[in-house]
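[job 4471] stage=fold_predict status=RUNNING
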Amino acid sequence: MFTLIKKEIEDHIAYFIGAAVLSAILIALLISAMYQPEPRDMPVFIGLSIPVIVILIVGFPAMGSTQMYTDRTRKISTLLSTLPVSRRQILCARIITGILAILTLLLPLTITMVILFPLFTPPIQMYLGLVWEIFAAAFLMAFACYCLGLLTGWNSSKIIPTLGGLVLTSILLPLIFVKGFGLHTVVILLLFIIASLMRTWHTFMSTSL
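[job 4471] inference complete, writing structure tokens
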């Protein structure tokens, strides 16, 4: 499994580099915002989330669809299936790689916020709770977008997977603006992720390689 994950990371290293660069930029902007004359102005942090939303819309569906489309066109799973690995392991390694890419973007930013907030805000537990709520919602949204890419990527066309993922993502994304970062959003995203993964699993396991 470790070898499969390592291969997936090497094959899609550009997404990890992009996630790390974006995370570093957001951390720099966050630190800069905290040292402004009004560091407690929360709209500043909301504004900093806009680039993350853009990446969710474009980057993670593209990563998922690229993984599946590349697999189908280059017969990667066909080759791997000749080795002592199962389809289940191949797909699990692919999904774990996507999760690692999402964490590469979100985790450093979240840790930075957890460290900085107590230094610049009143000692109110609400702030740390809000940080983790945002992280949970952002992670689930990113993972849902990634799952959309996996779902649409197993297609013979090169255009349909990416466009399909973007269209479905644009429908899913307004959920946060309507429901916020609360429990309803988490439940809806979890149900959507489960349904997408089940469909992807069924397609991947039943399609002839």
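[job 4471] summary: The chain has a mean pLDDT of 75.
[job 4471] exit 0
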